[in-house]
Amino acid sequence: MPSQLDPALKVAEFLLQIKAVKLSPKKPYTWASGWKSPIYCDNRKTLSYPAVRTFIRQQFVHVINSEFGRPDMIAGVATGGIAHGALVAHDMGLPFIYVRSDAKGHGLQNQVEGDLTVGRSVVVVEDLVSTGKSSLNAVQALRDAGCEVKGMVSIFTYGFDEAAKAFAKEKVTLRSLTNYSVLLDQALRSDYITEKDLLPLNEWRKDPAGWGVASKV
User: What is the model's pTM?
Assistant: First the structure.
């Protein structure tokens, strides 16, 4: 089990330990967007490990209480944020709703699922923030439904400038339990990567869309 670390480092250590995050600067992954990337993140794996999901839930609750104050509801972003959001809502004794990527094509054609009459203020739970587009799409859907979004929490963020600018433009505060810089720090501490690996890993984040084209790794 992870040692007693700073919470952000501990979350990063968990993600590396259970291989929710994989780093491969020499053999990059290809994302659905077509980007070449030295990192692959699948935070759904955290749900399979009780100790990990418990720690994440506890940290989410702590961040929500300290950064945003108690909301009326918790909202999870489909699909990765649904289970974690429900766990947080249960822990805090709050109603839970979730946001689809798009409105349903049948029935009531809802994009936000749940009872919106039980409150107005909401904190949004995400598993991963990359460019921020899908996360902010969920925020807009909640606002369109009449909700006051107090902020968003996520397990992990890559820390892209594009995302930071998008969140600032939409006036949404994001608090992530850990991030790319902390993850690299922890990966180096635990000998998951070497100092030599840091160069391509840091270069990727500066230009993730172009890295795969220019990279010689």
Answer: 0.91
CB atoms within 10 A of CB 95: 18
- Residues in contact with 126: Cβ distance below 8 Å, sequence separation at least 6, in sequence order: 77, 80, 81, 135, 138, 152, 153, 154, 155
Handedness of CA 41, 46, 52, 53 (dihedral sign): positive
Which class is domain 7-204? alpha beta
Model confidence pLDDT, tens digit, residues 108-137: 568 999 999 989 999 999 999 999 999 999
Confirm if 95 and 86 have CB atoms less than 8 A apart: no
Q: Where are the domains of the chain?
A: 7-204
Provide, for the chain, the percentages of residues in helix, strand and coil under a 3-state DSSP scheme, each rounded to the nearest 5.
45, 20, 30
Dihedral angle sign, alpha carbons of residues 114, 120, 124, 125: negative
Q: What is the amino acid identity at position 12?
A: A
Segment 177-212, tens digit of pLDDT: 999 999 999 999 999 999 999 999 999 998 888 886
Is there a contact between 143 and 163 (Cβ–Cβ < 8 Å)? no
